[in-house]
Write a structure and sequence with these properties.
Blueprint lengths: L3 E4 L4 H10 L4 E5 L6 H10 L3 E6 L17 E5 L14 H14 L5 E5 L7 H7 L3 E3 L2 H4 L5 H15 L1
Length: 162
Amino acid sequence: ISFEAHLMVEKPDLLAPLYIRAGCDLITIHVESTRHLDRSLNLVRDEGAKAGVTLNPATPIETVDNVLHLVDMVLIMTVNPGFGGQAYIAAQERKVAGLRKQIIERGLDLDIEVDGGITPGTIAAATRAGANVFVAGSAIFNDPDGPEHAISTLRSTAESVA
């Protein structure tokens, strides 16, 4: 079992070590939250955890070109961070596809995670674009048939197009 912390904070270097000591295996840091992304990612790795980098919808994938060798995962936000229940931003699929192409061309082994608006109606397109890790909140907790049904539906939909 893996425990991931998505640090949606300013100054992640102060908090990352605390999350790692609390048991996090993977820490994701927003590109927009730190002046020295390379240093922040190396801090996470030096503390013994896997490192990930997160991009908000308006942030281009080029901002992570020079740190992809340091990360185990790239998280692409498919909503603007802030609150649950937002609509999926389909335009982020181009970013996912471009990143997946770059990962393949460079021979890297990275996960692409998407977070925001993931539902049975959006997970297939995100999967086809190249995402292989998904964060779903509202789709799971608002499913009238319960979370088990929601997770099963999401998983089977993603697997059917993978």
